[in-house]
Structure formats: structure tokens, C-alpha cells
Amino acid sequence: MNIANSFFIGALSYPERRALIFNDSTYTYAQMNTIIGSASGYLSSLGVVRGDRVALYMANRPEWIMFYYAVARMGATAVCVPGAYRKEEMVGLVNDSRSSILVTSRELAAEIPPCPAIPSVKKVIVVDDEGFQSIVRGEKMFPSVDGRTSGDDVGAILYTGGTTGVPKGAMLTHRSLVTSAQNIAYLERQTPEDVGLCFMPLNHVFAQCHIMNSFFYSCATLVLFESFDMERILGAVAQHRVTRFYAVPTIYIRFLNDPASRERLRSLKYVFSAATSMPAEIVRQWLDAFGLPINEAYGMTETASCVTFNHLFRHKIGSIGTPAGIVEVRLVDGDDNDVGEGERGEIVIRGPNVMKGYFDRPEETAVALRTGWLHSGDVGVFDDEGYLYIVDRLKDVIITGGENVFPKEVEDVLYEHEAVSECAVVGLPHPEYGEAVTAFVTLKEGRRVDDAALIAFCKSRLARYKVPKKVRFVAELPKTPAGKILRRELKKMGTA
Prior knowledge:
By secondary structure, the chain is an alpha/beta fold. The chain has two domains: 5-379, 3-Layer(aba) Sandwich (Rossmann fold), CATH 3.40.50; 398-495, 2-Layer Sandwich (GMP Synthetase, Chain A, domain 3). It is built from 16 helices and 25 strands. α1 runs antiparallel to α2 and α10 (249-256) packs across α12 (280-290). The longest helix is centred in the first third of the chain and has 17 residues, at 29-45.
């Protein structure tokens, strides 16, 4: 079992069908299969063997996909580092994963530190360089390497976090990845004739597992973008007659606010939203305007995406659907006992899509997978027909524009500023992004700094989506008698 087998099948069954479109470049399934095979041989020539970890640090581009599947094919593990990360953030993940190879692009090469800062890395590959581009062009080929993987081998490590905000590497096995791709392809009724569009970052579970893996599993065509550009996206939908569209709620709101988009999105037959809750009112407005429901599901990094799916044949607005395929879902109380019908409980999950554990974190793995079920940290309730609804989150994670932001990451940066005495970061409601990263700050006596300066300070050290949209200065932060900051009180202050 290997997630890269999609390209063996594609090359055998649909060799001339377009697999990937990126800007002016198009790759068929036969071409992609050949490139991926040669790339696996190239990695082998560098000393990569089964079980090694290869870090991918790039923005969306064809080479990201080529290396992801090449690494999987040879039995190694792709470590997915966000291309939006700055040097310190990237180094943290590369060192945590102990990756032996780091794959990047010229635009990010300046973020790569000297070797002593990333001691496990034996070689840095820059995909724009002539060496790898000669493989893509078919001028220099390496014999493909078959890693002989089993379903329990780790195909990819995607980083996530918890209430502590410390990133953890979720180990997704080939069984996890293939199960998820199969579930999504079946539930969404994907076919080889479909054309889908992806502008979400490929390091994220939504783009990687829900979109990329399922499309190639279905031998369909994927149109890839570096990021979201509304005019270019609308043009591509019309040019390539895109049938399936995937985005976060923010994007659907932008389209609704642009009446001209209705005509340009006419080819769409299916639309899907994930990464953060979609307001029911937006679903209703979209249905009125475009004649299509916005489909939703529930998933997380630790489950390779799909856990539940809101069905095509009986779609309930506001629900995240029913368990997908053979995935099991329960709601439990604080003692891991099932809650009664109609009662709220933590969502726990069991199935072949669930991660193997967190890389090199046995204690946190034991907590997350206790009693044999993955504990999500999300609170839900089932209705009388078995449809699940999300009603709350146990975690402090902020979801802004579909991206996860962990308060501690931002707070750690703010604390580096000489004027900051104390700080706390929370998510406040925002009409477009879902939540806005908001920092509450107290200043050291005699120090002065304004909100623009603190925001600029964060921009130089954090990915753009993590930077606070607002900074509020307060005399003191609300705390418990034990000194713990009361985030719920800050949220009340922010919305008062």
C-alpha cells in the first residue's frame, strides 16, 4: 500500500489525461509517473533510504507534488513545512523531525541557515536549479526506487498543535492517506473527468489530503495555484472548465460580494468548504445565488482530513454530516464515557484514517489516543438522525481564514519586544476571516510602543496569517488567583 500508487494507476489507465496544470505547464499522468519515479531514484542517489525523513519547504508548485510522491514511493517520509514560515519557524520543524534532506526553492533559499543550525540535514535541494529541472524535462533520469511500503509505514508528517501551542508532527501512514483519499473520492463522487482547483497551501491537511490526494486517486485533473488571486482564479475556472471548487468561508464571502463571479463560475458542479466553520447564512446565500449547496465535512490533521461528510443526497445546512465510510465517531464526557442522546460531548474518532501518533512524542500520543480513540478537543452533538454538529472547541487554537494559529507562537514573539511586559492572544469574531488574531498587551513601565510598531515587529518574524490584526493595550490582564490568564474574559473585553 502506497499513496503514490495513484500515478502507477493513472499512467496505466489514463496515460495522456492531464494530471496537473500550473500556470502554462501541463503534466499528464504518464509524465508525472515518470518524473516521480526518477525523483525517487535521485533521492536514493543522495543516500535517502526507507524510513528517512525529507522536509518539503516550498510554496505551492509542481515540484512540491513531485517530491511528495517520490518520497512516498521510495518508502521515506515527507515532512511538510509551511512555505509561509520564516527561518526560525522552519528550523524548528526541520530539527524536530530530524530530516536528512531539505527541499526548497530559490525564493526561500535565503531562509535556510548555515548547516550547524540544522545538523541533521545532509543536503539542501533547490528545485529551481538545473539538476532537478533536468529530471522534470526528462533530460536526466534516475532508475525509480520501490520502497516496498506497508500500510503502517509513515508517508507524511504534518505539523499541528494543541492547547500548548507547541507544534507536533502528526504521523500519517500510507493506510491513513489512502483511506482518506478513497473516502473523499467516493463520498464526493469524483471521476476522471473532473477538474478541480487548489490554491490552499499543500502542507495543510485540507489541500494535501482532501484535495490533492483524492484528485490523483480519482485520476482527475488538478489546477494548482501558488495562492489565492481572485481574478486569476475566476479566469482559470472558465478557461479549464473547472467542475469542483474547494475553499474556506472567506473566499465564498468574497465571491458573494462580487456579482460578476456568478457568470464566471458557471462550470462548477460541486463546491466544498473546510478548515473552519461555515456560517449557515452564507450557505443559504450561496445556494440562492449559485444554485449549489456549499458542502462541508469534519476532519483534522490527525485524521488525514475526512471524519464526517454532509451528504450530497441529504444535505443539512449547519451540520458536518455523518461518519465517513468505516470511520467511527463517538461523543464522550470528561471521563471518556458516552454522553446521552442530544447531549454535548467531546468528539472522539477511530478508524484506519487516524494517525499513527505524534513524532517523537510518546506521552502526548498516549493522551491523544487514549482508550484507542483519537480525542479531538472539539465538542459536538448528534441530532436524532445521526448528523453531527460542532458546538464548541476545547482548544485555544484560533482559526483565521482557514489557517490555524496557536496563541503561544504569537505571544512568544511579542515577548521578544523590549516594551512588552505581558501579553495574551485570542481570536475575536471577524465577518470575513472567521476569527481575527488579536493581541492584548501590557507595557513595561516607562516603555512606549504603538500598535503599528508591534504588528510590524510580528510581521518580520511570523507567517502573515499569524500576525495580529489588532493590538489592544490594557493596564493588566485578567487572571485566576493562581495567575493563569483568563482568555474568555479577554474575548468578552474584545467584543464589548
